[in-house]
Structure formats: C-alpha cells, structure tokens
C-alpha cells in the first residue's frame, strides 16, 4: 500500500488532469512513496469510538439571508470582468472544446 | 533613541501617534518606506511586486481625510504589505505562481477591503511559496525571499515574504496566512511577531485557498501590541464566508495590558527533547522562566497525540489542495495553453492537462497528486476518514489540556532558519518543518510566535497556544513578555550596519 509505481503516478496524473514527463513520473513515484509511508503511522492511533467531522469550526449549518446583494457588495462582479480572464470567450460565455466527443475530454 | 529612529522603523502604534500629532504625514511616512525598500529589497527579495502608485494615492487620500478631521482610526495612513494571496481589484494577484502571473482579480478579498476601509496604505505584495505550499518560499515562481538576519538562509514559509519584510522594516505591518505553520515558522525565523488566529476568526473570502478547513489569515508585525491592533481590524463574521465566526470581536489592545499574575502556562513535554536543537530548547525554557518571574504558574502538560497531527495534516491538506486547485483549469482565468495559438490541442483534456503542467510548479503538482491518491476509490477510508478521526482526537486532547491551563508554551520549530537549498530536494524533510506548528491547525486553535532570543545569531520564537477564540490570552502573555524583553527590538545586521 505504501509504494507507488511509475504507473500509479501516471494514473494519478490522468485523474488530476496533469500532464507529466517521464522524469516527473519517476521523481514523484519515489517522493510520494516516502510521504505515504510516513502517513501510514496513523494506523497506530485508536479511533474506533471517535465521532469525526470534516473540520473543527464548531458551527452549526450556516444559512445566508434570502435577499439579493447590494450593488456595492464585494461579490457583485460584472460579466465583462469575469470573461476578461478567460482565454476563449464571446460576449456572453466562456468557450470550451467539446466535452462529449471521441477523445478523453469529459470523463 | 526612539526620537532618532528612522520613520520606516516605526511600529503601528508609534506611526499612528506621529500621524495623530502631525509630526509627519502619511505621504512622508510612505515615501520613507518606499525609499528604504528601494535600497534593501534587492538583497532581501521580500516582494513579488511593489505598488508605489497605489501607495501614494492611498497616502494622499489619508492625509486629506486627516486634514479634514475625518481620520478613520488607528490604521489610517499606515503603510503595510500583503502576502500575495488576496484578491485585489487594482493589483495583480499571483500567489507566487506562474499560473496567475498576470491575473487581475475582478473583486476584492474581505481582508483587503477591510484594510482599504481602515485607510491603510498598500506598499505592495509580498512573496510566498507557490499557493502557500512550502516552508521556505523556495517554491515561489519568483524566487526565494532571503532572511534579513542571514541572507544565505531562508526566511521560512510560506509567509516568508511578509516575515522578511517585517525584519527588514518594509512597512509598519504585514498580513499572512497560516495553514500548517505558515505565519509562525517564518515569524520565528525572522524574529518578528506572527499570530495565527482561531480558524474562522478572520474571513477567508478572496484569500486564494490552499486547504479550506485549515487556512487562516493573521497579523505579522513588529510587536505583539501591533498584532492586537491588526487583529481587531481584520476579525469578524462575513456573510461571504460561511465558516467565519459570529464570536464577538474584542479590543485586543485592552487584553495586552493585563498582568500575568495567576495565568496558568502548560509546557507540553512532547514538544521538547529528541529532534529539537538544545539551544532552541534553552531559549524556550528561558522565556517560560521569564513568564514565571512575572507571576505565571508553570506546569508540565502532555499532548501524546500531537505527534500524529503532521501525518493527518499531510492527508487532509493535500486532499483539499487537489480539490481547490481544480479551478486552475486553463479555461476560467490564469495560465492557459489556449492563449498560445500555435499549441496543438486535440481535446478538452489537453487544455486541462497541458495548462496545469505548464502553469503549476512541482510542489503544487506533488500535493495535487498526493491528494488525488488519498481521496481515490479504495483508499478514502484508510486515509481521509482516518485522518479526520485523528484530527478529532488531537482537537479533543488540546481542548482538555486548555481547560486546565490558559496557554501552552513551546518552541515554534526544531531549529532556526536553515540554508537556502538545504531541504528543497527532500519533500518529507521539508514537511517535517511543520511538526510543532501543525497541531495548532489540526486542533483549530490560535497560536502565536514571539521572538525569544537567538541561536547562533539567528532569531527563534516562543510558540504560545490558547483555546478557541482566546487570542486575548496569547496577546496578553506576548505583550507582557515584550514589556520586559528586548528581542523584538533587535535589528538584523543588514539594517544595523546600514543605519
């Protein structure tokens, strides 16, 4: 469980949408293996009765008020300024290559 | 002595007094900072980018307000710098990444907006490890920030730029972020004060996310009292961040005035001994003895599971990184191979994979893959769920100890600042830099580094830890300590030889 092969890294790279060179695959295989064997020490901790949650805020479900933002709200951003950051867009939308095509696009 | 102190060396409190008494204007103060930065920044490299035009405009506006009797409060007209991880409408925000090298955010982070509203003067953006992933700023696309105490050494990380900037007196204060130690470790290495508040104390809206359940903004300052001032301004509930806390914000400067008589300080035995430089341990114990002399009651405590916090952290943090970094996709903003019209792109997959490959650095890629691995089918229970359970064990253990003592005192790191290049090729050794700071993040409690002396001429910090939302106790102990010690006033050779 605690050793990652070059094939494992290549697979993770595909899942994470990261193109990796052969050199990177070799390097990450050895570096991630040593990190993973370090984190394996958690099996020493008895946690069977622990009621865990994702985070330690102590907050209950937080709901926002059911009202529209004011014009000067930090979140009020123009369509133009959001589109301006995108490499490909028309006046209304960001443009992307086909998701459902023959290639490995969406899945 | 203080009468001869150059303007750029002033604390927030001193500068605010000088402005209020009309000894100088914000514009003069800002010019003094910019001139000093121009002289020493080439040696230190604390900044990713200077913003002299924004600084001068904000300083002039502040002077006009003051002249009209409309000064806004203690930070009005005070020059500062911001770790380059906050969205700022007028200034490119990079997170020290090639991916965002030219990104102009379309909105302001809550932290920046609060500083704008307070009238503070932005000098520029300071350096960080790429997307805050690192302990030395060596993963910054723009190069390492050098330690003003020894230019061959790192300033720490990820908030190494802010820490170096305070040691070099590049402005009156700085603002950093701490996900696993990123405020406290560089504060220790650079001999400044760094406070990581309770998770949720300061809004994360517009702070570029690394690990959302652990990230927290905090003050990086020349004194504990300045940290108290800044915390009062930055804290508070924000409807843009559902994890920001509705706990009331205190006037933390008031807390700084209380004497230490009867304060209970716990010293966790697991934070000393093997792996800790004996000189670091000596400075830490001297500082604790000083607190005892001021009336604190010191007792040994035990945090047996704190040692597992680092392993839990290197599951939880990369898991959240792999998710947060998916927004850097080559489609919405930032680096994209689609901007290169000659690039051969067969599919949407190519746009993602090639944009990310070219735009992100190796530490970021390493953590994305580690996170992808621990979250992948078949491993999720063994890693992520286990790490969340261990997080709860560590948090419960801290809560139990902190119901018995007011504050925990310990070293910040195992040793003082290391040499540039010493650890960058061994990720696990770099990760272990966080061994004494990460437990605080995992437990969700506040922690602070206060300068407590020198080891082989390099500064080290005393780490103080309190219960959730008890920043007042950290600031009280730290401020009282600085009343009777001078470590925080020491100038690095770079400046003392220069004055």
Describe the structure.
- The complex is a heterodimer of chains A (107) and B (499).
- With 107 residues, chain A is an all-alpha fold.
- In chain A, 31% of the residues lie in helices and 0% in strands.
- Chain A is flat and about 55 Å long.
- In chain B, a hairpin with a 2-residue loop joins strand 4 and strand 5.
- Chain B has helices at 12-20, 26-44, 52-67, 110-118, 160-167, 184-190, 224-234, 252-255, 278-293, 309-324, 348-359, 362-375, 381-404, 427-431, 438-443, 471-484, 493-496, and strands spanning 47-50, 79-83, 121-126, 146-147, 150-154, 173-177, 193-196, 217-221, 264-268, 297-301, 407-411, 447-455, 458-466.
- Chain B is of the alpha/beta class.
- At the A-B interface, helix 1 and helix 2 of A face helix 10, helix 11, helix 12, helix 13 and helix 14 of B.
**How many helical stretches of chain B?**
17
Q: Which strand-content bin applies to the residues of chain B? A: 5-15%
Structural class by helix and strand composition of chain A = mainly alpha
The ordered string of helix (H) and strand (E) elements of chain B is HHEHEHEEEHEHEEHHEHEHHHHEHHEEHH
Largest sheet composition of chain B: 11 strands, mixed
Spatial gap, N to C terminus of chain B:
13 Å
Order of helices and strands of chain A: HHH
Mean pLDDT across every amino acid position of chain B? 96
Helicity of chain A, as a percent range: 25-40%
Largest protein interface, residues of each chain? A-B, 63 and 76 residues
The CATH superfamily name of the domain at 7-257 and 489-496 in chain B is Amidase signature (AS) domain
Estimate what percentage of residues of chain A fall within beta strands. Answer: under 5%
Largest sheet of chain A: none
Structural features:
heterodimer; A: 107 residues; mainly alpha; 31% helix; 0% strand; B: 499 residues; alpha/beta; Amidase signature (AS) enzymes; eleven-stranded mixed β-sheet; two-stranded antiparallel sheet; 39% helix
């Amino acid at each position: 469980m605690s050793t990652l092969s070059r094939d494992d890294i290549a697979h993770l790279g595909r899942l994470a949408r990261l193109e990796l060179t052969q050199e990177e695959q070799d390097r990450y295989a050895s570096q991630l293996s040593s990190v993973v064997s370090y984190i394996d020490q958690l099996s020493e901790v008895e946690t069977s009765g622990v009621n865990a949650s994702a985070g330690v805020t102590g907050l209950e479900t937080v709901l926002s008020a059911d009202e529209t933002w004011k014009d000067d709200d930090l979140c009020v951003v123009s369509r133009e300024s959001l589109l301006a950051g995108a490499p490909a867009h028309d006046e209304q939308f960001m443009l992307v290559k086909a998701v459902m095509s023959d290639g490995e696009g969406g899945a | 002595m203080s009468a001869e102190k150059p303007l750029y060396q002033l604390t927030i409190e001193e500068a605010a007094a000088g402005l209020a008494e009309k000894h100088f204007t914000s514009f003069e103060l800002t010019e003094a900072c910019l001139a000093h930065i121009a002289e020493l920044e080439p040696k230190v490299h604390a900044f990713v980018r200077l913003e002299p035009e924004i600084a001068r405009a904000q300083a002039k506006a502040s002077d006009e307000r003051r002249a009209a009797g409309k000064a806004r409060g203690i930070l009005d007209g005070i020059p500062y710098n911001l770790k380059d991880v906050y969205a700022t409408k007028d200034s490119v925000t990079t997170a020290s990444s090639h991916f965002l090298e030219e990104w102009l955010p379309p909105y302001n982070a809550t932290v920046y907006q609060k500083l704008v509203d307070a009238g503070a003067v932005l000098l520029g953006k300071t350096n960080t490890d790429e997307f805050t992933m690192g302990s030395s700023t060596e993963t910054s696309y723009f190069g390492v920030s050098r330690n003003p105490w020894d230019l061959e050494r790192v300033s720490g990380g990820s908030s190494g730029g802010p820490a170096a900037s305070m040691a070099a007196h590049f402005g009156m204060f700085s603002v950093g972020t701490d996900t696993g130690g990123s405020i406290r470790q560089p504060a220790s290495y650079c001999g400044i004060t760094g406070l990581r508040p309770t998770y949720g104390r300061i809004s994360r809206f517009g702070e570029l996310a690394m690990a959302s359940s652990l990230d927290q903004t905090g003050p990086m300052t020349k004194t504990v009292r300045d940290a108290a001032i800044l915390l009062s301004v930055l804290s508070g509930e924000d409807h843009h961040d559902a994890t920001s806390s509705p706990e009331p914000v205190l006037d933390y400067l008031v807390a700084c005035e209380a004497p230490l008589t009867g304060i209970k300080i716990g010293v966790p035995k697991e934070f000393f001994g093997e792996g800790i430089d004996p000189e670091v341990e000596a400075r830490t114990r001297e500082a604790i003895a000083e607190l005892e002399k001021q009336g604190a009651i010191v007792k040994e405590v035990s945090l047996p599971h704190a040692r597992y916090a680092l392993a839990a952290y290197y599951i939880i943090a990369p898991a959240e990184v792999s998710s947060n970094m998916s927004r850097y996709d080559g489609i919405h903003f930032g680096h994209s191979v689609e901007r290169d019209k000659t690039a051969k792109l067969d599919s949407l997959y190519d746009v993602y994979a090639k944009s990310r490959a070219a735009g992100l650095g190796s530490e970021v890629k390493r953590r994305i893959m580690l996170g992808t691995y621990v979250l992948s089918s078949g491993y999720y229970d063994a890693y992520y769920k286990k790490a969340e359970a261990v997080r709860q064990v560590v948090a419960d253990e801290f809560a139990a100890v902190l119901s018995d003592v007011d504050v925990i005192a310990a070293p910040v790191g195992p040793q003082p600042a290391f040499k540039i290049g010493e650890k960058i090729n061994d990720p696990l050794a770099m990760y272990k830099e966080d061994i004494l700071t990460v437990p605080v993040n995992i437990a969700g409690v506040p922690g602070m580094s206060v300068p407590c002396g020198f080891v082989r001429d390099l500064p080290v910090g005393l780490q103080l830890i309190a219960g959730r939302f008890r920043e007042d106790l950290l600031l009280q102990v730290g401020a009282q300590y600085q009343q009777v010690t001078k470590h925080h006033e020491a100038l690095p050779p770079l400046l003392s030889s220069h004055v």
